[in-house]
Design goal:
alpha/beta, TIM Barrel, eight-stranded parallel β-sheet, two-stranded antiparallel sheet
Amino acid sequence: MTGFDMSTTYLGLDLAHPVVPSSSPLTGDVDHLHELVEAGAPAVVLPSLFEEQVIHEALSLNRSLDQASGATPEAPEGYFPELDSYNTGPGGYLDLLTAAKNELPIPVIASLNGDSFGGWTLYARILQDRGADALELNIYHIAGDADVSGSAVEAMYLKLVESVRDAIDIPFAVKIGPYFSSLGSFAHKLASAGADGLVLFNRFYQPDLDLETLRVKPDLDLSRSADSRLPLRWIGMLSGRVDCALAATTGIHTATDVVKMLLVGADITMMAAALLLNGPGHLGTVVDGVETWFTDHGYSSVSQARGSMSHEHVADPSGFERANYMKALTNYAPDWA
């Protein structure tokens, strides 16, 4: 035993350590959830429940209910009973949440990816009622309409956060992308609107073209450690300056990635691609590496280390800003030179 205290707090939840399996296919299966717990997961984030899935299932049910409606005087409303109180949402997700809550000894964070204000608030309440310890609002919005201003997009986000805050009592974080003109200011606004945490950043998957079918096709490239530099910069810039928890995601693969995020001020780190590539057991390897690094460097706890290299505390804060850009360009030397 090293005596190093790995514990941290996120969204009011006390966690044994700051490496959390994030939303992925691994967290969408009960057997894999148990494997993650055995590997030492302090909490889990379930895959996102997409509002489109709920709407699709509801429409499918409605079509079935309407089948043969009015065909005979004996069944003017069709042959199926009215299901006013029936949950037309995807039961599989709710079953997963219920099973996770019943079987896992750790906090379970549900994830919601909605598309309308009514959808967000309704399903946020449903997930709360099913026992979620906290909620992650995964806002995957591509602002592609040239007639919609940046301020209008921000207003949409803020209204959404306010509506969810009014609808539920459990804590929630907002997972956003990096594409805002003044991210620091917007982060403050999200916290003021009711977000208990920010998850930085949502990774927008870029489409590709199939040259044989001449169609746009989805494509998925898993993250690399180098992808963590964007959240590293912004968590370092926001730490101590925004009144909410900060979770680092995208590019968290190794103990080194985790240590860096904690030093710049992250409350937790979230890992998906590395677990998909290496299996649930990789979690324990990373946690052991984090503990070893901090112990070897004289730290006594995660809370002592957190933010010690943030923008507020680092000796040269310009490294997070424009100066870093100039140094990177002027100091680079290609291998062939």
